[in-house]
Amino acid sequence: LDEPTNHLDLESITAFNNALKDFPGTILFTSHDHEFVQTVATRIVEIFPTGILDKRMTYDEYLEDERVQQQREEMMMAKA
Predict the structure, then answer these.
(1) Per-position b or e across 31-40, b if 16+ CB within 10 A of its CB
(2) Whole-model pTM?
(3) Which of 7, 39, 44, 60 has an alpha carbon 20 to 30 Å from 66's alpha carbon atom?
(4) Longest Cα separation, the chain
(5) Would you give the DSSP letter of residue 57?
(6) For residue 7, which phi and psi values (nearest 5 degrees)?
(7) What is the pLDDT of residue 16?
(8) pLDDT along the chain (80 residues), means of 10
């Protein structure tokens, strides 16, 4: 899904979030909607030119984890 909450009203976003949280399968999405990502994502994959970071945690945990931040900095500083 690419930016799945764009052009949705609040009621539709809430219903969509709830449906995805209850979905038993895997969903790959990209979004700038912080609340959507925090509500739905249980695994964060960030792609860099030099590799990927793949973490099983919420988006806020990903942003706040000092080890993750260090790994992100290392990935950004590494040469491709």
Answers:
(1) bebeebbebb
(2) 0.83
(3) 39
(4) 45
(5) S
(6) 70, 15
(7) 95
(8) 94 94 93 94 95 97 97 86
